[in-house]
Amino acid sequence: MTTETTAGAPVAKRVPTERIHHGDTFVDEYAWLAGKDDPETVAHLAAENAYTEASTAHLAALRETLFTETKQRTQETDLSVPARKGDYWYYLRTVEGQQYGIRCRRAVRDGETDPPMADDGAPLDGEEILLDGNVLAEGHDFFALGTFDVSPDGRWLAYSTDFAGDERFTLRVKDLQTGEVLPDEVPDTFYGTAWSADGSILFYLTVDEAWRPNRVWRHVVGTPASDDVIVYEETDERFWVGVELTRSEKFILIDIHSKVTSEVRVIPAGNPTGEPAVVAPRRQGIEYLVEHHGHRFLILHNDGAEDFALAYTSADSPGDWVPMIEHSPGTRLESVDAFANHIVVSLRTEGLTGIRVLTVGSTEPYDIDFPEPIHSVGLDANPDYHTSVIRYRYTSLITPDSVYDYDLVTRSMVLRKQQAVLPGPDGQPFDPAAYEQHREWALADDGTRVPISLVCRAGTPQDGSAPCVIYGYGSYEASMDPWFSIPRLSLLDRGVVFAVAHIRGGGELGRRWYTEGKMLAKKNTFTDFVACARHLVKSGWTSSERLVARGASAGGLLMGAIANLAPDAFAGIVAQVPFVDPLTSILDPSLPLTVTEWEEWGNPLADPEVYAYMKSYSPYENVSAVDYPAILAMTSLNDTRVLYHEPAKWIARLRAVAPGGSYLLKTEMGAGHGGPSGRYNAWKEEAFMAAWILDRQGIA
């Protein structure tokens, strides 16, 4: 037997394996769990699942209640706001009782300027179904789309599917005139495709053995995949490759980027067999994005501009960059979108997102105003280049996801749709006024002020009695901007405060916020989070006995680190697909993502200082005999990004070194990094975690 049990809890066998680097020896007793196809590994994971199910059996009724509340509040038959591209309106429908969306289009009618809508989510008159995810998913436990890309002339649809969760997609082409799926399919592709101007050629991506997208291919529609041609291959293992068609449909962009360096190559969409031309050669540490706009390429870059600046260069003969928006420290320019007569820049300042508009022929840009002091805004689908109306999405912790059309000329906006929130178990309509959102600032160990966003029921006492969930991420410059959540209402209505810690390593306060939470400053991410947790207790929002921390992926690394750093600060920790054995993974260049990650974490293979630093915070390697809070780790067997054995090893070591705690591991045996597919499955997964959290807080 691979797994014994003590008092019902699985105990993994120990098989000591030595790792020796830079004079340091680490004994990894659970390295054998990396054998994904080993029957002993599968048996151990099954035993862990059985133990978790038994340990949470008393929460079954609560889980069902939470799932039912989410389902009850959700308008299950619904319709997205149609977006116009060419002669069609494109949209997504969902149907009550069906797990996946249905992608559709409807022809634009004479004189029609506003998107057609159906309040009840019913099919639009004249609808054409392009792809029904429920039909594709039949007979499969997992289903995900990788790409969904209609050719400029509207005739062809390129789409790709994954039925395992490992994010290796099979690419297919569908003739939208006949409904026929062509025989020229391509296995093992990555996200991202781009069409030539006439729709005769499709560009796509494949990955190397380390799951790094490294090749761009050219496929002629109607020919075998064996005839496809490599257009570009990136040999530097630090760099990923992407491909897309510009909104103007004039250029194919090949985006080549590492964590800190960029290079873009372009192919005229009207000459798809041409050689890719370099816009600007890569220079270490210089990042730039390219958007086509008339006779020029817009360049969003950080050359001498930490928080990025906007410039342009000739599209015919790229050369010097001419400034358009100068660098302004503290205002992070994040992306640029070009339309025929306008340029729209997405940015963030003082921790909040925003939109800036430049009009062709005018030297004065303007910013769009938004009503709430805590909010999140970003452009939505805007496929039409020749338009003066853009679409954006707006939300906050108390405002459901809202879709607006904004006229760039008149500066007027129209609310097209707000996410419906149906009455909950009390039968009362959803009322945003029943909830409050707040912004607090914690003081980190080094004196840095760290923002926290909170939401709670109106009138929640601030006397330390309320339970609280604190969420964090803090890596890759990813910002955890305020978002609305229907499942979260079930927690708020039970008196739980929900807080988001905007810690360093994220991008909430600009590029500096990111650089101060990576490489040899990574520990700032963890100490910031602990400072936020302590602040919530000190400010009376909660107590450590009722505070549960939650994070996923790199946020799962955060969860493991704070468990070691401040186990007394939390009543429980939920770690989803957690990166808790980072040093072992980053030492192995054969693993997916490792080499590309060295510019995020450092290279412990080559640098003894990086090795020692990572070893000092690795959750797995720093488990000690202390009283840990209860821990729930969630993972997926087919996860390519964070391998399942990291949390499996972590839980095993916790049980061995600190046996007095409560440690649960739940493994999805047929899913990937995002967990189970299908909206109902996702709701059930969320209900599982929420029930566990409420149990830890004493209100189950």
Automatic annotation (TrEMBL):
Residues 10-418 form the Peptidase S9A N-terminal domain. Gene3D superfamilies: alpha/beta hydrolase, Prolyl oligopeptidase, N-terminal domain. Residues 483-694 form the Peptidase S9 prolyl oligopeptidase catalytic domain. Pfam families: Peptidase_S9, Peptidase_S9_N. Keywords: Hydrolase, Protease, Serine protease. The keyword Glycosyltransferase does not apply. InterPro entries: AB_hydrolase_fold, Pept_S9A_N, Peptidase_S9_cat, Peptidase_S9A, Serine_Peptidase_S9A. PANTHER family: PROLYL ENDOPEPTIDASE-LIKE, PROTEASE FAMILY S9A OLIGOPEPTIDASE. Belongs to the peptidase S9A family. This is S9 family peptidase.
